[in-house]
Amino acid sequence: MPEDGGVSTVDATAGSAVPTGEAGRPPIVAFVCSAGGLEALMAILATLPSSFPAAVVALRHQSPGYPSRVPEILGHRCALPVVAARQGLELRGGVVVVVPPGVHVLVTNENRLALIATDGTPPYRPSADLLLTSLALVAAERTIAVILSGGGHDGATGASAVHELGGLVLASDEQSSKHFDMPAAAIARHEAVDFVLPVSGIGAKLVELIEHRHDPHQN
Fold this sequence. Notes:
This protein is an alpha/beta fold.
C-alpha cells in the first residue's frame, strides 16, 4: 500500500518447493475465478506480505461491456502494487497483474503478456484455461495455479496442464466457495489439485510454498 494511503495501481493498456527457474525468473501465482471469486481474491491478497517474491496474475470472468474497477478494488486491500495488464508487460516478482475484460491473456517465453481480443462470444472471458495452459508451457514448475469460486468448468483443463508440467495447483474448498463449480471441476481431474483449502488458508500456504524454495536446508 502506498505511504500516502492511495491505491497502488498502475495504468497499463504437497509441500514441493517452487524454484526460481531459468535466468532467475520468479515463480508465478495465477488466480482464476468467476462469480463470487472477487471476495475470495481480496481476502487472499490481503494476507500476502509486501515482500512476497512471486509474480501474481489475477483473472476473473467479466463482461467486456462494463469498465473494470478490479485493479482499484484490489489495490485498496493489497500490500503489493496492483497493475492493469497490457500487451508485452513483463511479469515481475511482487507485482499483481489484473487481466482486463474483453481479452484473453497468454504468457510468452519472454515472461511477458500477450493479450488477444475476444470475439464477443461466451463461454468464458477471459479464459482461465488459456492462461494456465500457457503458463504451464513456459513456466512449468514455477507455476502455482489457484482456482477460486465460479460457475462452470473453466480452469480445469489449465489446472491439469499445470500439474502435468510440474507446477502446483490449489483450489478453494466447498465451504468457502460461493460457487463451487470451478474448484470442483479442477478437483475432479485425476490428481491435478495438490491442495484443497479454505480461502482463509490459501494465502499462508502460498507464502509457505514460495518461502520453502529459499530454505537452504531443504532436500
